[in-house]
From TrEMBL, chains A, B:
Catalyzes the hydrolysis of the adenine ring of phosphoribosyl-AMP. One of its GO terms (molecular function) is phosphoribosyl-AMP cyclohydrolase activity. It catalyses: 1-(5-phospho-beta-D-ribosyl)-5'-AMP + H2O = 1-(5-phospho-beta-D-ribosyl)-5-[(5-phospho-beta-D-ribosylamino)methylideneamino]imidazole-4-carboxamide. This is Phosphoribosyl-AMP cyclohydrolase. Homodimer. The gene is hisI. Keywords: Amino-acid biosynthesis, Cytoplasm, Histidine biosynthesis, Hydrolase, Magnesium, Metal-binding, Zinc. The keyword GTP-binding does not apply. Pfam families: PRA-CH.
Length: 130, 130
């Protein structure tokens, strides 16, 4: 598809993706997509990423149930970064982070050190079943 | 400094950085920092990126006057992505994009094609002097 060809994929065939929550505007996570992941995301309206650590497609929420419904896909001026507007399903408030927090960006630089400044909403052990 | 050592720099010694506007929550841009850029950002309280195209430090606004004041620096759960909370100075409303738009993420996927959905606030030719 032509819109997929317009993206400047990096040397690994990936593009960085920012997931922003509809309504709150909170940045919930950052991940990567390859062409296949993005095509599936657009088709099903749910975020499908490329897991660099596992080297496979990762339908977010496939294990945790924390699906991300995609409302809009935006691209930056250089055609090499994507921004998703999403609703984080599976829990209220939404949990995007594998640590059981709302957002992956829970560490803030304070007085020269990183401090966890967001609460764990749910014990990760109860999110991911064995 | 220890907090800089805790970041997982990529194979090029860089970390991806998301710049989010204080108040509006708008994502204004996405760029990269190396260790030196981040140290300077933290020290001066203004965003200093690493320009991959020019291969040099890039104090955002050095040419355009569109300085980014940094209120907070956050890090994600994998220690490999940063999120800045900023105020975009130099124009009201803030212009972060070199195209003269508020945000770099002005292209939205609509009906299978990318459409520019945000207005140009200021002619780029008048932003960057020769």
């Amino acid at each position: 598809m032509q819109w997929l060809d317009q993206i400047k994929w990096d040397r690994d065939g990936l593009v960085p993706v920012i997931a922003q929550e509809l309504g709150s505007g909170d940045i919930l996570m950052f991940a990567w997509m390859n062409r296949d992941a993005l095509a599936r995301t657009a088709e099903r309206g749910e975020a499908v990423y490329w897991s660099r650590s596992r080297q496979k497609l990762w339908h977010k929420g496939e294990e945790s149930g924390h699906i991300q419904q995609v409302h809009e896909i935006r691209m930056d001026c250089d055609n090499d970064v994507l921004l998703l507007t999403i609703t984080q399903h599976g829990h209220e408030p939404g949990i995007a982070c594998h640590t059981g927090r709302h957002s992956c960006f829970f560490q803030a630089l304070r007085d020269g050190q990183w401090s966890a400044v967001e609460p764990v909403i749910k014990d990760p052990a109860t999110i991911y079943k064995a």
